[in-house]
Design brief:
The chain is of the alpha+beta class. It has helices spanning about 10-25, 35-60, 65-75, 185-195, 205-210, 245-255, 285-305, 315-320; strands spanning about 90-95, 105, 110-115, 120-125, 125-130, 135-140, 155-160, 170, 215-225, 230-240, 260-265, 270-280, 325-335, 345-355. It folds into four domains: about 10-60; about 90-170; about 195-265, GMP Synthetase, Chain A, domain 3 (2-Layer Sandwich); about 270-355. InterPro entries: Barrel_Baseplate_J-like (IPR006949), Baseplate_J-like_C (IPR058530), Phage_Baseplate_Assmbl_Protein (IPR052399).
Length: about 350
Amino acid sequence: MTDEFTPLSYEEILDQMTAEYESLSGYAPQEAGDIAIRLRLLAGELAALHEKVEFAGKMLFADTAAGEYLDRHAQTRGLVRKGAVPAAGSLRFGRDTAAAYDIPIPAGALCCTDGDDPVRFETVEDGVLSAGETSVDIPAAATQGGHAGNVAAGAVSVMVTPPQGVARVSNPAPFSGGSDEEDDETLRKRLLAAFASISNGTNAVFYYNLAISFDFVRSAHVIPRRRGRGTVDVVVDVDAASVSRMSEIEREMAARREIGVDVKVSRAREKSVSVAVTLTPAEGFVPEEVKASALAALTSLGEQLAVGQPLKLVDLYTSIINIQGVDNFRVTAPTADVAAGEDEVIRPAFTVTAAQSGGAS
């Protein structure tokens, strides 16, 4: 049977069964009669079965599966959903006047941002505010993974567990590198790419899939024979706080590479690009809110740029064009697509300004 399965609703099933019964018996079942009740019960069960068959059909294929079923498809290609990664940075503990003695600040000291929905951070190693000093910077990370931990400089100001002798806390630089758990569509994209380019343990796809499987790797690019025959260079985009973990990738590559191949793992070089957008808010919309929406959309685009991927004007336009409240806009910089080297990742710095009506073209 080649006909496509089309699920029917309860009403459709009941109507078909009632019509068939009337056709065969010569009369319609009474609404309160035994036959009508039986038909309604059976229609309900069949409708539920139709829903289950439709669900099973979707979960059967990688391009429509979701949740744990998509995870199972991914496992057949050696892929695992990437977990949430906490943002990393440093906390600056200080006091107004220097103490005459060392003040220990233990690992696990909790601090958070101000506001109704604070984001928590904790020191990841022991530190000391030395005698004669008024401040010390200690490496720290968000207590939970996710983009929420990527806060701006100065956002952390509350000590949840204040170390004795310390008067204040702040973060001198933004916390970065936090990412949410990989969603279905991102995992599906990796899975379909794996199906399109079969990894056989000796090609670029094999090394790419291995590199990107690490939670702290945002993107990767494989360059075969860059240093001559038998060499493979794997360039990964990782946050500064995760550079020390690149040795994990190197060990995994060394353990699984084919014989006679020299694999080198390096961090992608960052290429800064200034992006300036002038937009005209539509009538009735608050300019600051429209600007914030545009900046959020552009920031999301920037975070998705992979190693070696260019920044295209068409992508900038697509990010802005459907934002509610934007009547018109103009990208003033860059004026053309920006290419990235095979070992570079573009880091856009966005500036969004609002023009008066008619100011954008």
